[in-house]
Design brief:
Layout (H helix, E strand, L loop, with lengths): L1 H14 L17 H12 L10 H12 L7 E5 L5 H8 L3 E6 L2 H11 L6 E5 L11 E6 L9 H14 E12 L10 E5 L10 E10 L4 E10 L4 E9 L3 H10 L2 E7 L13 E8 L10
Parallel strand pairs: 1-2, 1-4, 2-3, 4-5
Antiparallel strand pairs: 5-11, 6-7, 7-8, 8-9, 10-11
Helix pairs in contact: 3-4
Length: 291
Amino acid sequence: MFARFRGGIAALRKVFERPRLFDPTGESFWRDPYMSDHILRAHLDPATDDASRRRVTIERSARWIRSLLPSGARLLDLGCGPGLYCEAFADLGLRVTGVDYSAKAIGYARERAASRRAPIEYRLADYRSTDFVGAFDAVTMIYGGFGVLSNVDRDGILGAVRRALKPGGLFIFDVFTRRYIEDGRGGWYLRGRDGFWSSRPHLLREQKFDYPGEDVHVDRYVVVEWRGSVKVFNLWKHYYSAETIQGVLQEAGFSVEGLYGDLTGAEASASGEWIGLVARPKRIRGQVTKE
């Protein structure tokens, strides 16, 4: 019995250790049946930017992105959540397809789309393994979706975006800067029933680890449920400077058309928390343009 107790303490100690780079932990933050409902509520909360930006910012971004595109353009929104940006794009006359990993978010988006004049197509899929070939005038990844990817997944997404875009199409997205992840501290928190992380009373340990040579940060959440399980969630944030993100894009065969402070077209700032980018795949010599 003592050996079992010691083994349990050792296993618990291990979950508090610094994780390996981009370790996903096996727990699905976005698909957890309980938490996905709370995430959806956060998306729809008009008073917070925790999951989606506030409506006024969404509408400003949609108008600015629309100004970069031809009339009736086809747009693919990766990580669309409950479709808040997709709806704003559709209201501006774009033909929109949204992709997201959360069944709860896509279910909500599809319900709203059924009553709309301008149809929006929603697909429940992991965009890291979804291919859309040569169909879109623009691909968007908004509110840091690009920054949660490992290097392997990031490079895979850039290849998928190239294939999804028509010749001359635009990749429009934003990334975190180092400034974005500087605020906040970890700690221990005791929570009652029906909290964000669990329906049971639980102990929450929030830890923050930096990987300076990789420009990566992780928020690690260990949820110890009362008379229940121990769950671990690693939320990764790969942050960039203007120089490093442009280098990644150029290496992947993109040219940077514009660098901004965010996706409303604000002026770029060296002290800002976000970088907004508009990029275009470079023409390959001998490439045939399809009309």
